[in-house]
Amino acid sequence: MSEAKVMIDLQHVSKWYKDFQVLTDCTTQIRQGEVVVVCGPSGSGKSTLIKTVNGLEPIQQGNILVDGIKINDPKTNLNKLRSRVGMVFQHFELFPHLSITENLSIAQIKVLGRSEAEAKQKGLAYLDRVGLSAQANKYPAQLSGGQQQRVAIARALSMDPIAMLFDEPTSALDPEMITEVLDVMVGLAKEGMTMMCVTHEMGFARQVANRVIFMDQGKIVEDCTKDDFFNTPRGERAQQFLNKILH
Amino acid sequence: MEWFTAFFQDLQLSAPALWHGFSITLKVLCFATVGGVLIGTLLALMRLSSIRVLNWIAKGYVNLFRSIPLLLVLMWFYFAVPFIYTGVTGNYLTMDTALVSSIVAFMLFEAAYFSEIVRAGIQSIPKGQTDAASALGMNYSQSMRLIVLPQAFRKMTPLLLQQTIILFQDSTMVYAIGLLDFFRTNYVRGDLMSLLTQYILFAGLVYFTVSMIATYIVKKLQQRLTV
Fold first, then answer.
1. Nearest residue of A to residue B145 by CA position?
2. Domains detected in chain B
3. Domain ABC transporter spans what residues (chain A) (predicted)?
4. Using 50, 70 and 90 to split pLDDT, how confident is the model at B226?
């Protein structure tokens, strides 16, 4: 794994909201094909961290490189870079005024310049992959939360991303819907997709993660392999967190 | 009874003129609404933009037009436009500018009100939607045109239509610059035929009926959009 190329490279990233520092000197690397789970108590800055990766949250210090391109460089075409990084949100954020098919194809057509037929074909193929081809002509409001999130994953995949970012993809879901979303994510991980996932699903972490990053108060406290994290967490804070979440 | 029959007899003769007057009212209404919404949307985007100069311009515009009476705007345009035209070109403006002045004045005036409605509409769309659009690589213009404005306008439609109904009533103010809209046509005809009371009552009834029906439709629409 160590010889694979670095897809996401965070170097000493710091961020402030006015006087309040939300991220402090965060450094980590995610290599191609790696699945990294980011966890930590609420307010620890994990969602903020993942949103800095595609520039949804600007940073004040440090550098972020995605596939070798510096995202905090004003000369970088941020929109172009974002179109290559898939993102899945806590609240799905499907476009409610568009049908499922249109949700899947709109960015492919308008951003990537694909033809309508090609975009539709691609979108529907991914919709089939997440097991929802029957819903193609419905509108987001007609689907359950779990279904909406699977469509959101299909929408991101339709852009042929080089990496996928997941920002608490299951936190807004009813328990019985979490599995259907996690199954899709596990499938992706097994296919070798580069993934950065903010999640509290430790089962998912155990199953497919290569590494676990533990954050607290805006700092990366632990950054180690999955086995190390679950068996021998070094920091006291991570031990407390694990005790709370696993029991 | 005579009071009535005389009026109804005359109404048959004046119907084409009244209809023409009504079409003028509709013209003012349509152009002012469409133009007002377009300019209003532009103002709303300026108001919400992070560029400070645009912000100030939009804010100034809205405050200006909300602080002066509509009648004044109307008259100012009517009298100023030929004056400026003469000043710029050296010729006298021979065409009647009442209709154009009315449309422009209402358009600019309504734009200030529409811009506030559009601004509220845009702000009611959750930030997650623009985040999702950005994450898919859309630029500002794409995210506005394809994602935010279509949703915002759907939410705003009842409010925009309500404002248009108010405009329908306010449009009678073109009376002041002599434009023969529906109301003024009624007035002139009534004056001429000594049936002034009847014609003004009739005009009131028409405005009332149209506004009531339109309001009812907007209410129904609102229910359908919120469900």
1. A110
2. 2-226 (1.10.3720.10)
3. 8-242
4. low
